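Z., the sequence and structure:
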Amino acid sequence: MTTHTPEPAPTTGTGGAPDAAGAPPSPIRVLVADDETLLRDALEALLGLQGDIDVVAVAASGTEAIAQITRHQPDVAVLDLQMPGADGIEVTEQVIAAGVPTRCLICTSHARPGYLKRALEAGARGFVPKTTPAKLMAEVIRRVHSGQRYVDPELSAEAIAAGDSPLTPREADVLELAASGAPIDEIAQRACLSPGTVRNYLSSAALKLDAPNRHVAAEIARSKGWI
């Protein structure tokens, strides 16, 4: 009579997971930071449908994003460019300065060439507009996680065509608001600045663009793709 020796049970790791040799790759751990609740929740839900992506934290401000990144150390942080507390670029700078291994991806509705250059100089690994389809966004996150960079092709082409803007991001912000003909007080309210600070930014922008007033400065900046 032939004796059959049972095969040993598979080795399991912590929590009963298969050993490293047979385990599927761990999901990409992601943080989503955006001060607009609808957009933040929508992106969290859409990314949650991807089998290889796990949204481990969300944040509604730059300050909260830094705290959550420090706490969870996600693989990738998807950061809105403009948030209260600290913008996405400032968050990126602080994450890198702190030595946290999280890779930062900027997602914005203000996709101007000047912001792109500043984001890349700060160490961002990607820069995409908020109009990016969910499927592509997931792929961008995978690329960033793997160590690649990703910049939206259209924005990259615009940045090359426009050349380097002499305007700071804040000057570009107030100049864009001024382009619609809004009065100083309205620009100040929308930009969360004092009227005096707005006047200073507009004067500086006009001087840099050799324009006689803010309206001409806005036209020049828009023709160059800087706002």
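The mean pLDDT is 86. The longest strand covers residues 53-59.

Let me know what you think.
H.
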